[in-house]
Amino acid sequence: MIDGRPFRQVGVDDLRPGGLICVADHASNHVPTGIELGIDPALMNEHIALDIGAEGVADRLARRHGIPAHIATVSRLVCDFHRKEDEAAVVPTTSDGYLVAGNIGADVETRLARYHRPYHDALAEFIGEARPKLIVSIHSFTPQLATSDEERPWEVALLYNQDDRAARHAIRLLGEHGLTVGDNQPYSGKQLNATMDRHAEAQGIPYCTVEIRQDQIANEAGQSRWAMLLADVMGRVALEV
């Protein structure tokens, strides 16, 4: 956390009306002092704690490509910013088959007040100042879930709920790069789209929720490659919507 805030913002000097911004809800595995999750510490480097590689991509989009970023600084196991306040998973007690024992009986209201609401209030202000042409939400997914034998073949995917106007362009443009692109895979934005439902769809702002397979962005070289690719593709998408 930065100065006690559950987020950090990068590239705010580049905010300009009608530009692009990016958001990374699951960018951190940080657990604030005083919270005990009751899980194997090794799991804090796995997908249940954060979207591996997402922070590096979002940070590079901001620092190298002029796309300001709003980046989470608290683990999704402490408070999941990509869930609505009234969803049980906002403070998860299980994740991908693992029990998060420390969250059983947790004071959910305190977690919401300390982390979830400040994160989303600041994001709303960030978007209000930017008045963006397009919001890019960065996530990553595992090649295979721990609870499943099914492999996930997509290198990248676009998620959306009702507003698919930007996603359609992105799917086409990424496909032209020779990538295997998922359409509302491996998760459906019809069910999992809380942040963009609130800050994009509800405001009529076009958006792309981008899910990158983790092996693509597990190291700095991959993160740099994908930041460069997304900066180009999303810039072109913004011209179309």
From TrEMBL:
Alphabetical UniProt keywords: Hydrolase
Lineage top rank: taxon: Bacteria
Pfam families: FGase
Family matches, as Gene3D superfamilies: Zn-dependent exopeptidases
A GO molecular function held by the record: hydrolase activity
SUPFAM superfamilies: Zn-dependent exopeptidases
InterPro entries cross-referenced by the UniProt entry: N-FG_amidohydro, UCP029730
Protein's recorded name: N-formylglutamate amidohydrolase
